[in-house]
Amino acid sequence: MIKGSDFLPLPGPGEPPHVTRFAPSPTGYLHLGHAYSALFAFEAARITGGRFLLRIEDIDRQRCRPEFEQGIMEDLRWIGITWDGPVRRQSEHIDTYRAALDELQRIGVIYPCFCSRKQIRIEIEQAGRAPHGPSGEALYPGICRHLDPAESAWRIRNGEPYALRLDVGKALALTGVLTWEDCRAGVVEADPLSLGDVVLARKDVPTSYHLAVTVDDHLQGVTLVTRGEDLFHATHVHRLLQALLGLRTPRYYHHNLIADSSGQRLAKRNRAITLRHLRDCRRTPDDIWRMIGLSAETNPKAL
């Protein structure tokens, strides 16, 4: 299964079969980009006699809906993808993420941040410049990083909204230099400072994407994380969290992204055509494979 420079990675000599996963958020229906990502992970596990897991990342209570979760499973089955073991739903494991957050609190690498997005924007504008992340986004300037603990505690007791941020500089002082292995990029030196002090939780939700996905991959025994190349830089933070929490580090494969005829990558926010719509238009799974650059013979239903 290949798209551009993509290739299916095989385990090295003596390594066990891959355990992979597909982890969509039920905030909409799957599109062709999701189909490619799911099939890539599925095939990477299948060709080695490994396991393919399905995880539902549903910590966003406002946007996640049961009908989207049901639709995800229907679409995966329609294109011939099945998964091993029970589905893991992040909403059912909040206590697990809270425990990880407590450990990070214990070792002193997180701090409460009371800044709104507007306050952060104004601070950056007044400073006249701000460091930027790998995608060009302005990074959090550390406004609350050095607040007096007594003031922070007082503001929390008084019900002020807050987020919990990772003090990346302090964390790196504990871990030292870290690396991770990407199947396409080779050995990569982790650079979490490039993303700034990311949010790990909020007052009402004790986890975030960065924390939950890192903990889940460890607990589910994932050995090969396959996901789109747009998440390559997030791995810098995930590697740091693994070191801080004593979690295993899997191998990574950041595959190409599916784009439309104009070159724009497929995404829910761009209203990409969904698999559900294509199925309603009487397209077949073989049509889907061809649309994402695969042959009909790759369709697992045909094997």
Task: Write a short abstract of this structure.
35% of the residues lie in helices and 14% in strands. By secondary structure, it is an alpha/beta fold.
Give an account of the 3D structure.
The chain is an alpha/beta fold. It has ten helices and ten strands. The strands form four sheets. It has a three-stranded parallel beta sheet with strand order 1-2-3, covered by helices on one side. The longest helix has 15 residues. It is globular and about 60 Å long. The two termini are about 15 Å apart. The C terminus is likely disordered.
Mean of residue pLDDT? Answer: 88
Q: Which sequence of SSEs, written as H and E, runs from N to C?
A: EHEHEHEHHEHEEEHEHEHH
Radius of gyration: 20 Å
Number of strands: 10
Q: Major sheet, described briefly?
A: 3 strands, parallel
Strand order of the largest sheet: 1-2-3
- Helical stretch tally: 10
What share of the residues lie within helices?
Answer: 25-40%
Query: How would the global form be characterised?
Result: globular
Instruction: Give the N-terminus to C-terminus distance in angstroms.
Output: 14 Å
> What is the strand content?
5-15%
* Class based on secondary structure composition and strand pairing: alpha/beta
Low-confidence stretches: 295-303
Family: Belongs to the class-I aminoacyl-tRNA synthetase family.
Enzyme class: ligase
EC number: 6.1.1.-
Keywords: Aminoacyl-tRNA synthetase, ATP-binding, Ligase, Metal-binding, Nucleotide-binding, Protein biosynthesis, Zinc
